[in-house]
Structure formats: C-alpha cells, structure tokens
C-alpha cells in the first residue's frame, strides 16, 4: 500500500463502554471519560448511525468513541463514531461516507476519477438514488458507495446483514452498464488489516449472486482501505477482489 494520506478530520468527545443495543440505531453506554479526562460514569443513550448488525463491534463491554450531538433537542445526546477492534478503532458512522468518497474522487484514486468534467451527488437512476453521477467527456459514470466494517481472515466482506437496498443498487449499476454508461461500486473498507474484498455470500447469497452478475456485466469494483487514527481518517490504499471473485 502507498504512504498513508489524511482524508478528513473526525473528532470525538468521549470514550464509553457499550451496555446494550435496544435497536439498530440506539445504544446504551457508560461514558468513562470526556475529552481525555476521567469522569464519574454516566449512563447515556447514543445514536448509532449505521444500519448494519455490527455484531463483532457492538457488543456489551466493547469500547466506543462518541461525539456530542449538536442538536440539544434530540432524544440521544451523543453519536457513536467508532468502535474498538483488534486492528484499531473502526469508523462505524456512515454519515462520513459521503465526504470520504468525495475525497477519493477528488484525489483520483481510481482511473474513473481522472479528468472529470462534473461530479453530482445523489442522482436518480431507475428506482433508486445512486451516490454519484460523474461526467467525463460524453461518458456518464454511475457510482454507488458502500461502507464495509466486517473482516474474516483478512477478507473484508459486505454486507453484515441481508440488504435488499444494497442488492437493488448493484442491479441499477448493471442496468447503467447495459444502457451504455459506466458504473462503479466504491467500497470504503474501514478495517486496515484487510487484504482483499468479497461479498458476504454466507449472510446475503442473493446480493452475492447479483455482485457476480455485475462483474460479468462490466461493473467495476474499487475497494479502498481506511483507518481511523487519533481523530483522522487515513487512506491506506486499494485492495483487490478476493481470488474467488476475480
């Protein structure tokens, strides 16, 4: 991988331990320190900005990093930013995916991103809104962004829960290619130990089948690895598809 490059700042305000996760978007934590200083333990409700299961990261007793919510009228006063894993802190807040993807496009980390004439976010295609529509000369390039936080034996795998929405997005990319455009699945991998990327066939065989169809149709896949160090997202480089998916 190339030398590490700083992508964006992602500040946090407190450290905590997860007590429970009553639903996908709600956690209950004990806050153990604020701004690096120990504090009397406070039990708080926190917002989880990621729809995945995250079972390897969000389990009782695991350490989390939190950011104080700007909106004081919210039911939850904190946002979860990252969770502790064996390979470091893992970003689990999908609100930052757009900025990270924009950085990747702007810094031309993939050939599709070179020499662009236009970049438009959240563009409608078929029954979906895809994350980006890129323009280059007379070519349209549709880009869908997915975040990946699950790793198995150094393989980054997506998704960690069945996702009809994710499957539909890949199907739209296939339609784009068949209609004469270009299409790219941009995968943001937040596990720095990952050495290759693959769809999670065990969890979502339907998505895995569509993923294989997409590759056959000419949809490109670009997995990029990032780490969360201190308060910064760091770009670590591109990884290939795992051998069985090439």
Structural summary, described in words:
The chain contains 3 helices and 16 strands. By secondary structure, the protein is an alpha+beta fold. It has 2 domains: 82 residues, OB fold (Dihydrolipoamide Acetyltransferase, E2P); 152 residues, Trna Endonuclease, Chain: A, domain 1 (3-Layer(aba) Sandwich). Helix 2 runs parallel beside helix 3.
Q: Count of helical segments?
A: 3
Number of domains: 2
CATH topology of the largest domain: Trna Endonuclease, Chain: A, domain 1
The top level CATH class name of the largest domain: Alpha Beta
Shape descriptor reads globular
**Reported CATH architecture of the largest domain:** 3-Layer(aba) Sandwich
Q: Pairing-aware structural class of the strands and helices?
A: alpha+beta
Radius of gyration: 18 Å
Described by strand count, sense and barrel closure, the largest sheet is: 7 strands, mixed
Order of helices and strands: EEEEEEEHEEEEEHEEHEE
Low-confidence stretches: none
Q: What percentage of amino acids are in beta strands?
A: over 45%
Mean pLDDT: 95
How much helical structure, as a percent, in the residues?
A: 10-25%
Number of strands: 16
First-to-last CA distance: 20 Å
List the strand order in the largest sheet: 1-16-15-13-10-9-8
């Amino acid at each position: 991988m190339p030398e590490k490059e700083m992508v964006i700042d992602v500040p946090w305000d407190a450290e905590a331990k997860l007590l429970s996760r009553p639903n996908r978007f709600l956690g209950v934590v004990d806050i153990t320190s604020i701004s690096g200083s120990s504090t009397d333990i406070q039990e708080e409700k926190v917002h989880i900005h990621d729809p995945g299961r995250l079972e390897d990261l969000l389990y009782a007793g695991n350490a989390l990093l939190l950011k104080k919510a700007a909106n004081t009228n919210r039911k939850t006063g904190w946002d979860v930013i990252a969770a502790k894993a064996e390979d470091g802190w893992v970003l689990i807040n999908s609100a930052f995916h757009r900025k990270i993807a924009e950085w990747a496009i702007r810094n031309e980390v993939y050939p599709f991103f070179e020499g662009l004439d236009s970049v438009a976010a959240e563009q409608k295609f078929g029954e979906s809104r895809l994350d980006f529509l890129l323009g280059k000369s007379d070519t349209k390039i549709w880009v869908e962004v997915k975040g990946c936080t699950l790793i198995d034996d150094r393989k980054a795998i997506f998704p960690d829960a069945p996702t009809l929405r994710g499957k539909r997005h890949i199907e739209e990319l296939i339609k784009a290619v068949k209609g004469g455009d270009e299409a790219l699945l941009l995968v943001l991998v937040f596990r720095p130990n990952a050495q290759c990327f693959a769809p999670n066939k065990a969890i979502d065989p339907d998505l895995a089948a569509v993923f294989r169809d997409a590759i056959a149709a000419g949809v490109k896949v670009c997995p990029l690895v990032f780490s969360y160090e201190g308060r910064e997202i760091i770009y670590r480089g591109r990884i290939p598809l795992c051998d069985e998916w090439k």
